[in-house]
Amino acid sequence: MKAKIQHMLTLLFVCWMALGFAQQTTITGSVYDAEGNRLPGVSVAVRGTNVSTLTNAEGQYTINAQVGQTLVFTYIGLQTEEREVGQRAVIDVNMVTSTSSLDEVVIVGYGTQSKRLLTDNVAKLTSSDIAEIPSPGFQNTLAGKAAGVQVMQTNGKVEGGISIRVRGVASVGAGSDPLYVLDGMPLINRDESSDAPQNPLLTISPNEIESIDILKDASASAIYGSRGANGVVIITTKRGKRGRASISANVSHGISEPTRLREWLSAEEYMELLTEAAINSYGEEDGRAEAEWLFGFLSDGADWRNGQYHNTDWQGLALVRGHVSDADLSISGGNENTTYFFSGAYNNTDGIVRGNAMERINSRVNVTHEFNDRFSAGANLSFSRTTIDRISNDNAFVTPLQAIAQPALSAAFLDNGEPNPNTLYANFLLQDRHAFFNTIVRRVNGKAFAEYRFLPNLKFNTDFGYDLYYQTEDSYTGRLAPFQSTNGEGFATSVGTESYITSNYFTYEQALNDIHDVDVVVGMEYNHARRRFQSVTGIEFPSDDFQSIGSAAQITAGSSTFTSYAFLSYFARANYSLMDRYLFKASIRRDGSSRFGRDNRYGTFAAVSAGWVLSEEDFLSDSDVLSFLKIRGSWGQSGNAEIGDFASLGLFGAVSYRQRAGIFPTQAANPFLTWESVEQTDIGIDYGFLDNRISGELDYYVKRSDGLLFDVPLPATSGFPTVLRNVGLLENRGVEFVLNTQNVQKDRFTWNTSLNIAYNKNTVKELPNGQDVVIGQNILREGEPINAFYLLEYAGVDVDNGDALYYVNSRNPDGTLNRETTNDPNAANRVVLGAPLPNWIGGFTSNLVYRDFDFSFTFQGEWGASIYNLGGTYQSANGDYYDNQTRDQLRRWRQPGDITDVPQARLYGANGTAQSSRYLDGASFVRLRNLNVGYTLPSRITQQVGINRLRVYFAAFNLLTITNYKGYDPEARSDASSTEASRGIDFYSAPAAMTYSLGVNFNF
């Protein structure tokens, strides 16, 4: 009996084992990143068991598992993926950047650090965040993606200048742009345009960028010392990965249109308004005579009385349909010792403003070689050539968008097809046909680097970087172009700026007893830059067939300058972690700069920060809801050195008097001149819930800029108008909130979202002697935001007589404002009304993947800013002059009792055209910044033709804008000036481009 029982148990065990082996299967597959590159070193584990493996050099794996079990794929910095084992023997996986971002590795300057252990505030974007967005400038792809980071493009020109503000504006007279660092090399970021500002970083192609880390608080940026006051943007280019060579390509083509058009008066409506305006000013008989003369001139002899007149759409001639074409190719791979990345890219963009276009080529080579276990070295090298067809700045009569001032009565072209020269203002089509303005930018950027490891915990890095920015401008204005009376005029410039930088630093890393972790960096850096500029102007050309400056019979102007600067720096940083729970960091940098006075040439910038990972404590570690909680705080100082290269010195210039050479003083000396000092305090919380499916950050900061670099007026007896001094105090105070969610995580359906919103209050705290500084329509005043609008306050229209009214706003004895109204703008007083910078900015991004389809979009918003339409005094002036008018002028006051905000039409009457809040508008908006829809063909189809991954997609940029702003675009600003005060001014500024693009990317 006992033997029978043993036999039965043995039989049951064998059956059970057979059943188990029958259900167990061998799974193979490949793991790819978001761009289709194979990923080596990915951990593949069977959940709940000890069975695991790693992908090989070609991203392939093999593992045994049973049906119904779950495979878990993990890789640092990427989102963990899970796949249930079914009947399929092959399971391929695409891994994307981790939404929670807690395990990401961020670049912090001269090193890296896990975001989980970070005590600073650093925003990280990866290549997937900026990929396939149809915009030629990579900065545009950052909009709405990082909390507290505002991205502003000046206008819709393809080369338009771009400003990035990190936690508000930190300076009045010095630069406000962040420091850009490409692979450890601080980039030249100086606008070299002789006309409207252009973006110097257009030379960087988005396809070569692996990640962008934005250092926002002082603890993070203090390691860059005197140049970190406005934040630091660290750009890291792509590297090769060990394994079989991977080829990636992308091709796309799209069309562009203006995001918004405005409504203007037709020829008939224009004649009605101007006739009424003339009669109101001169009476019935004289007024009609004035109007009829005007209409006869504008219609150029056409029978306008009988309706035989032109009805030209000048706006449609200025703003046209553009196109964007992109193509890029990269090859990457490597073996155990060498990795490489080669890429090339081409962009061709025809802008939405007639005559504005850009063509760019890029190439990059990144190579790293490990000679042995101790020594490795490599080099990064890139070249780009950008050609831009330029148009004049917004304040030029020949710029295309000023054509909207032309009445529709005027013909754009003559019967012979030539542009009509007999228009009210200069016909920009003559400039477009008989003149050109071209810019070519050639840029070479490279770095050679080496690393030697003396001990397992001690290594030495040495880098040598070089950045060459070489730009030429050539323009020719032919004899048939407007305002040309010199038989042609030519202009040529060349400017070359080169920057050398060498960095040498030691890094010591030590882990003790799995409790203590120490990371110390100590080093020095030297940066030297030179700039050489030349220009020449000539007139009297034989004919328009000769357009180079060498054909000019007379040279009328020329100039040449040479300048240089140098920085010598010593820096140190130490990180200490106790049980990965208690975190401490300190950094210091001492900078010496040739730009500052001999008595203050060196400055020291220090920072400290600390963090506490509460979720590692016993009282929280067992929580089923809370996954991660860290409190951090930081304090630090950084500086601002973005001023002239010889700003502290007394300078002399050359002068010619009756053909005799001489010199004269041009700048007063200030040997005490030194850096602006930006002191910032930050308190933040990083959180994660439900296995980090909900994660994010909450930060509060105070950022104070002391010793503002400011031009202070001098007595006339000094012989100088101003001198640059360190005076004044500016404060930014704000809150940032980030919420990342993994809403759905299924085998064939994932949905992730990210929300960021930031509030910033900017206040001028101190000015020289407490005195206001008025700059056009803007003011610097203690207690107000920087460059607040300073205007007469418009009070509407007198219902009895149609007069424009203004609030008097004089100061009453009790300190209140006198709110009486007057029709005389000279009797009214200017007051502060709004500011050009928003109080709130935010963004919302959603990424959804269902089977082989993917869908993503980003909304961006700004709230609280104002914009002043300086062109409104001509465009919306109720018939004050001959300019065509916006259609809202049809609701003008016409008889007693009319209630409206548009005064009575009066030709030359200046009724309501004073610069006032009538032309001040809110600039709040919400914009669908980018949208992307794609489909990836199944691998069983693509692999038959040797393609690992093939995806077709539709992408859109600036697809939708929701705003109450009456002008073209709430983001457009005048490019006639590049000062900070002009950033709130709209003056015939082109709207942003809305682009639709179709593309395909594939990987071999």
TrEMBL record:
Q: Which UniProt keywords apply?
A: Cell outer membrane, Membrane, Signal, Transmembrane, Transmembrane beta strand, Transport
The family note in this entry says: Belongs to the TonB-dependent receptor family.
Question: Where would you find this protein in the cell?
Answer: Cell outer membrane
For this UniProt entry, which residues form the secretion signal?
A: 1-22
What is the organism field in this record?
Parapedobacter luteus
| Topology term for the membrane | Multi-pass membrane protein
Q: Does the keyword Membrane apply?
A: yes
| GO cellular component terms, semicolon-separated | cell outer membrane
Q: What's the name of the protein? A: TonB-linked outer membrane protein, SusC/RagA family
Q: Which PROSITE patterns match?
A: CNMP_BINDING_3, TONB_DEPENDENT_REC_3
For this protein, the record's Gene3D superfamilies field holds: Carboxypeptidase-like, regulatory domain, TonB-dependent receptor, beta-barrel domain, TonB-dependent receptor, plug domain
List residues of the Cyclic nucleotide-binding domain.
776-829
